[in-house]
Design brief:
about 130 residues, mainly alpha, 6 helices
């Protein structure tokens, strides 16, 4: 420890860091005025149904539970969207974790933030429960 800094260094915790990044992603998406559908689109355009893609600015979602793994897999299989936003990250996480972890954690954080009353900044905290 250096002089003048009385605290030990933080312990590296990859899982916690992933949750913190996901909450920040969700928080900034909300600050920028994105809807959940638009966040889903940013994370993986293949997650949206053809009807949802017709008007990306309309917050209407055909998908009730975007965290349902079977529904997500089905939408990806049916998608003919020509590109991916975070292809390398998605492939790396699927290989390492068996899922696109960033997408799941960001949508979980979105759900948590949506449950907090607007203007209740004391309820906002980093590292929400999974």
């Amino acid at each position: 420890m250096g002089e003048g800094f009385p605290f030990p260094p933080f312990k590296w915790d990859e899982e916690r860091r992933a949750r913190l990044r996901a909450e920040l992603d969700a928080y900034y998406a909300r600050l920028y005025g994105l809807t959940r559908k638009q966040l889903r689109y940013v994370l993986d355009p293949a997650d949206l149904t053809p009807k949802e893609l017709e008007d990306i600015l309309d917050p209407w979602e055909e998908v009730k539970d975007p965290l349902d793994p079977e529904g997500y897999a089905r939408r990806q299989e049916q998608s003919d969207f020509p590109g991916e936003t975070f292809r390398v990250l998605k492939e790396k996480e699927i290989k390492q974790y068996g899922e696109y972890r960033t997408r799941r954690l960001s949508l979980q954080a979105w759900h948590y933030l949506a449950s907090v009353a607007p203007g209740n900044h004391t309820a906002l905290r980093l590292d929400p429960p999974a």
